[in-house]
């Protein structure tokens, strides 16, 4: 598997696919299965944890319980405190790599890679042979089993406290019997790695994105989080 994964991972790192023909960081590279949020948000690489929303459609720019908007220093401190709390919550979940048999160190860092329309990837691509089990990264609940144009066959899940949204895309198929609202244990089968949506046919992988759950519950519009540092356990199907 390693022989297969390394060239593919290298290809991904260079954002080099376009119908299987390698080239370097094209502006028109596939959007690669991003949840709909990524099409409408305006990522700010330097200010990842200071999640002031730019789209303005789903959340206010500052939390209603936070300091007044007239005090930028206090607002920054409040955002930093919120970010620290989120980091603690992510650590406490001891997330599992959501692909069976894959260790955290095998996932290349493509979070800030460019995709089409000048957007950024803001997700992890986990390379694995087609048919490899995709598993729940945390205990929690299935939010939605569905399909969309870029992601193909997708599953959204959340943790037990509904703080984060986990988006799994490009699945070959869904696990038998998996339905919206199902409860999950970490490692439970969600589906199988594939190439549905805009994944290159010769590079099966799981597009895995973690987002903060928006206050209004519109889980597909959450602010992305770089999850790689928080994937502590290798993937292992129950
Ligand atoms: Zn991806």
SSE order, as H and E? HHHEEEEEEEEEEE
As for the CATH topology, it is Glucose Permease (Domain IIA)
Structural class: alpha+beta
Number of strands: 11
Major beta-sheet overview: 9 strands, antiparallel
Helix content: 10-25%
| Overall pLDDT score | 79
What does this structure look like?
This protein has 238 residues and is α+β, with helices and mostly antiparallel strands. The model is unreliable at 6-31 and 37-69 (pLDDT under 50). The strands form 2 sheets. Strands 2, 3, 4, 5, 6, 7, 8, 9 and 10 form a 9-stranded antiparallel β-sheet that branches. Strands 1-11 form a two-stranded parallel ribbon. It has helices spanning 2-13, 36-40, 72-93; strands at 95-96, 124-127, 133-135, 140-148, 152-159, 164-174, 183-184, 189-193, 205-212, 224-225, 231-233. It has one domain (2-44, 92-233): Glucose Permease (Domain IIA), CATH 2.70.70.10. A hairpin with a 4-residue loop joins strand 5 (152-159) and strand 6. 16% of the residues lie in helices and 24% in strands. It is globular, with a radius of gyration of 17 Å. The site of zinc ion has 6 residues, from loops. Zinc ion binds at residues 32-33, 121, 123, 125, 207.
